[in-house]
Amino acid sequence: MENYNEQYRNEKLERAKEKIKELKGFYIHFTVYVIVNLFILGSIVVNSGWDAFFNIGTYFTPFFWGLGIVGHYSKVSGSLPFFSKDWENRQIEKYMEKEKRESEDFLKKK
């Protein structure tokens, strides 16, 4: 029983480490997003003046990259129904069950 508890605790620790790694990746992604977009917008203002802020093309990069940021956050926070750990586990179980059924069917045919 003690071995089981230690194994369970180790699994929880590994999941926590993986979650922290994903969160760190998101923070790095977000920081790069802010820095790069500030640089881009600053360059546009310096080169084109303040009138560039009224041009829709000015906001393409921040908008579409921002959608990527939202998707990344959704994945990290677990609020995205697809591609979460639960989704991965369900898919693994589904394919394992399918393999088991196919193996049993094959053995029955012999």
Automatic annotation (TrEMBL):
Phylogenetic placement of the source organism: Bacteria, Pseudomonadati, Bacteroidota, Flavobacteriia, Flavobacteriales
Superkingdom, natural source: Bacteria
Protein name: 2TM domain-containing protein
Annotated keywords: Membrane, Transmembrane, Transmembrane helix
Annotated TM spans: 25-46, 52-73
All copies of domain 2TM, residue ranges: 14-97
Pfam families: 2TM (PF13239)
Organism: Cellulophaga geojensis KL-A
